[in-house]
Structures are given as structure tokens and as C-alpha cells.
Design a protein that fits this description.
Distance between the termini: 27 Å
Order of helices and strands: HHHHH
Structural class: mainly alpha
Largest sheet: none
Strand content: under 5%
Length: about 150
């Protein structure tokens, strides 16, 4: 995710407000709301991209071995977007390990799967959740003006 000049300016002001909350102007608070909404939208867009990539990955995996190159490229892209390898991914890569790129991805996916298993054990066996999309913010409670005296959203 990249920030534009305006977003960086608002982010810098938001950080300054967090350090000195008594100096918030209504304009600053509104800018922070807009920045928060933009960040939430970027996170939702990231989740939509991951869902698309995983669906694409499933299609390529179903067409293996004829789609090896496409499957490896989509898997690489999905991993970069936060996808965690599934048992089906690991099985497909094991079947393709004669391909050097597949063998390399298999090693990477095994390491990620091992991290997930260790995290699950650390959490008492519960499944590690996928990155979640935070609920949309209706107000910022950390900034003066984020929650009005009446409790109404701004």
C-alpha cells in the first residue's frame, strides 16, 4: 500500500494529534476520518484481491499438470497477497517438485505451513485466522472530536 502526499500529510497530523490530543481542530478530525475510511477501503480491496487470487489458484490447480507455469505464477502472487498455503497447494507442489521453480515454492510453502502450525500450538490448538478486514469505522475514539459529547457519530 502506498500513500499519496495528501494521505501522508493527514497521517502526520494524526500522529501529532495522538501525541498532543488537546490541539485537534474539526478539520483535522474530519481529515482523519477520511484517511481511516481510505485505509479501510484499501484493506477491503486487499481482501477482495486475495479472494480473487485464491479462486484463480484453485482453477489452475484443478488443471494441473498442464498449467504448471500459470499455477506457480498465481501461487507466488497469492502468497505475496497474504494467502497461506493449503494442504492442496502443498500436495500440488509435491507432485511438481521435479520443476525447479515448484521445488523452490514447495520449500517456501512448507516453511509458511510450519509457521502456521507453530502459531496454532501457541494459541492452544485454535486455527490461526486469516487476515481480517476490520469493521468500517464510524468514528475515531482516540481523537478529540471523534466521539461527541452526545455519543453520536461524527
Amino acid at each position: 500500500m502506498a500513500f499519496g502526499v495528501e494521505e501522508l500529510r493527514v497521517l502526520r497530523r494524526a500522529l501529532a494529534l495522538a501525541l498532543h490530543p488537546g490541539h485537534a481542530r474539526a478539520e483535522d478530525v474530519q481529515d482523519c476520518f477520511r484517511l481511516a475510511e481510505s485505509l479501510d477501503e484499501a484493506v477491503r480491496e486487499g481482501a477482495r484481491l486475495r479472494a480473487f487470487l485464491v479462486a484463480d489458484l484453485d482453477r489452475y490447480r484443478a488443471a494441473l499438470p498442464g498449467t504448471v507455469t500459470g499455477y506457480l505464477a498465481v501461487l507466488e502472487e497469492a502468497l505475496g497477497a497474504g494467502h497461506r498455503p493449503t494442504p492442496d497447494d502443498l500436495a500440488a507442489l509435491r507432485a511438481l517438485r521435479g520443476n525447479p521453480a515448484a521445488a523452490e515454492l514447495l520449500d517456501r510453502c512448507r516453511a509458511l505451513a510450519e509457521q502456521d502450525v507453530r502459531a496454532r500450538f501457541a494459541q492452544g490448538g485454535r486455527k490461526v485466522p486469516a487476515p481480517a478486514v476490520p469493521p468500517a469505522r464510524t468514528r475515531l475514539l482516540a481523537l478529540t472530536g471523534g466521539a461527541g459529547e452526545s455519543g453520536d457519530p461524527q
